[in-house]
Structure formats: structure tokens, C-alpha cells
Sequence to fold (179 residues):
Amino acid sequence: MKPYNTVTNALVWFVLLGLFFFLGMMTHHLLFRKQERELSKMAARVEKLEKLEPDLGDSMRELQSEMGKLWYAKKSHNTPLTLYELKEIKETVETVGILNPVIDRVNASGVLQGMINSQIAGMEDALKRHDDKAFDQQYAETLATCNECHRASGVGFNRITYPSAPPVGNQDWNPSTSK
Fold:
């Protein structure tokens, strides 16, 4: 009887091990399929989001608007809004650098980063020193940098100038009302 129990026990263990192995494989297969479905969903979402990604024109229009708002905020002596617009310009420039680092063989990312390090930093410094003339000079240099980049990338006909009117008609530029 003892050999029978040993064979039976071995057979039971063999069946149990096989069952555990089978269940493990099925669980692995089901988890793999679930991960595969999740990856497929994520890929579809990334594709959808890429279509929503702003193109260069969107970012440039945003930058142009922010430059106009910066000009009017400064001319209204609204320092908090001026600083805010400088921050917004930096964020837009970073976006352009990430999404469109090279435009028609022009290193836009490098040009824009140079603009941040030079003119934008110069405007921030001029604000801290209450030096309107230095601010205006840095603003003019920023416009010149924009126009030079446009020329180098084949769109020199797209010249940026000082704003002749506020970029938005529904913004209060008065610093006293922002407290």
C-alpha cells in the first residue's frame, strides 16, 4: 500500500503543480492581454494629443500676443503684470524650443533661449532697477531678434513691430486695480 500512496501522492503533486502552472500561465496571459489593451489605448490617446499639439504658428501668435501685453503692461506701470507676461513669454519660448527646435535649418530653440538669457533677462533686470530706457532697449532688441529669426527661416515678410493697440480689448492694464 505504501508504494501506491507514494505514486498517488506524486501524481496528486504533479497534477497540482500542473494546475498551478496552468493557472499561472493563464493569469500571465490575461495580464499581458490587459497590458496590451492598455498600451493600445495609450497609443491612441498619444496620437489624439499629438493632433492637439500647438504648431509653430500657434506658439508664435501666442508669443506675439504676450509681447503686446508685455508692452502695454509696462507702459501702464503695472509691474506685477509685466513680470507675469515675461514669465508667460519664457514658457511659450520653452514650448517652441521643445516642439519646434529647428525651423527651416534655423536653430529656433537656440535663438529663443538666447533671447531669454539676453533680452528677457535684461527686461527683468531693468524692471528691478526701474530703468524704463533699458527696458525699452531690451524690448526693441527682442523685436529685432524675432525679425532676424523670421528672415533667416524664410519668412522675413513677417515683421513684428511695436503694438499700435492692445492685443486684447478686455484687460485692465491699471496697476491700482490689481491689488
About this structure: The chain has five helices and no strands. The chain has a mean pLDDT of 87. The helical segments are 2-52, 56-75, 79-99, 108-128, 132-152. Residues 42 and 139 are 43 Å apart (CA to CA).
